[in-house]
Amino acid sequence: MELIKLTKENLEKEHICCAISGNKDCQVVSKKAWLRERLDEGLVFLKGDVRGKCFIEYIPAEAAWVPVKAPGYMYINCFWVSGKFKGQGYSSQLLEACARDSREKGKKGLVILSSAKKKPFLMDPGYLKHKGFQTVDTAEPFYELMYLPFDENADKPAFLKHAKKPHIEEKGYVAYYTNQCPFTAKYVPILEAAALRNQVPWRSVKIETAVQAQSAPMPFTSFSLFYDGKFVTNEILSEKKFESMIQKRN
Hints:
With about 250 residues, the protein is α+β, with helices and mostly antiparallel strands. Helix content is about 25%, strand content about 25%. The protein has a seven-stranded mixed beta sheet with strand order 1-2-3-5-6-8-7. Strands 11-10-12-13 form a four-stranded mixed beta sheet, with helices on one face. It is globular.
């Protein structure tokens, strides 16, 4: 498989894997705008020359949109090889390319957000351990910060203290999100409309900068839903799932 690196020159013509729709789709528009701004900050998006979800996206940890302290590391935003592309060595090819590039740039290692057990929108911890990653820190209720140091004496990354126990002081449903994940552009308005229709309190908090993301009250900033101050899920819910959640709480 050949790897394609997104640049400002080819961004418009290349599909971005996780959102296959055309360039006028709100998901594609939001994600490509977010990517374009991050490219100058050192973000790399590598994808296979296939039509589907086969890519890795990473950025220097200092510029990552997560409440993590990992100076000198490369942070993996998203790493996704799905369906018919699994079992062909593509995951290894992408991860090895990321590690090679990070070493060449003088990084201390790789960092990624995972979970104690496989969760939606988080990298499979079993696969990461197989590739040599170790859990270096944890945050409630199930988050694990995993790293692959290039030098055993490298400083260890960690969650920032304010994100270790996700909680906010606000009633009703509150969704924090960014355009790092293209699905939020489509589904956050759908969830907001469902909340209005079901007459439950709702507020959307769009994170617009890395500084805001690094100050966020939870580890996963692409999407996190709270209810009456308590963390509920990092899964970007469908309308049906959200309405089922509302009904159960009522």
